[in-house]
Amino acid sequence: xxxxxxxxxxxxxARRMADVARAAERAAQHxxxxxxxxxxxxxxxxxxxxxxxxxxxxxxLVAGLGVAGPGVWxxxxxxxxxxxxxxxxxxxxxxxLAPLVRGGHAVILHDRAVPGSRANLDHLVFTATGAFYIDTxxxxxxxxxxxxxxxxxxxxxxxxxxxxQTVGWEADQAARALGVPVRPVVAVHGAKVPAPHxxxxxxxxxxxxxxxxxxLLRSLPPQPxxxxxxxASLGQLAERTLPPAS
Length: 246
Hints:
Blueprint: E1 6-7, H1 12-54, H2 57-76, H3 82-102, E2 106-113, E3 120-127, E4 130-139, E5 146-149, E6 152-155, E7 158-159, H4 161-178, E8 182-190, E9 199-202, E10 205-209, H5 213-219, H6 228-241
């Protein structure tokens, strides 16, 4: 009998994209610095010298740094990197799912590519209750919340209909590759899902608070024939047909 297990690194492709975005940001900062730093240094020097002439050199130094410091900070501060935020969410989801693997109750693959497209599958889970595609959403803004209006899921002022359609499409691609039905699930970090037990169904997709994800998978009824051997064979098939995302 094959043993259920864990394969792949969660958030790996998102982390690579985050690194690319950060490198591009840093290069742009260096280009701006060549223009901004000379006049900023000159201004700091003038202010420091002026203060030092009426006080002490220590006060002049503090005054000069007071001019230069904020400017350098604004020049090199990091902008919000959505790829890094997404990668962090995927890692958190992987950690929440890990006890299922350790208990021998699931085979899980992370960050798999959809052949013929640029899409990637955050998490594929095979359990005694069937096959699941889990997409992670790291919705952690303090200014936005999840709501349902007119049968549509909104995050702040943003309609999430297209996002849910994409998750459904990705689950369909996984199902086509594996030859079994794959249930689409969105695991939400940060925002509260506005429904009893933190779970709702919209557009054929289950949206659940990430902290309740493991409980959801355990609460579903077992499917006939979904033993550890089948889970393992599906995991192996997924590794062949859905390669690691690049």
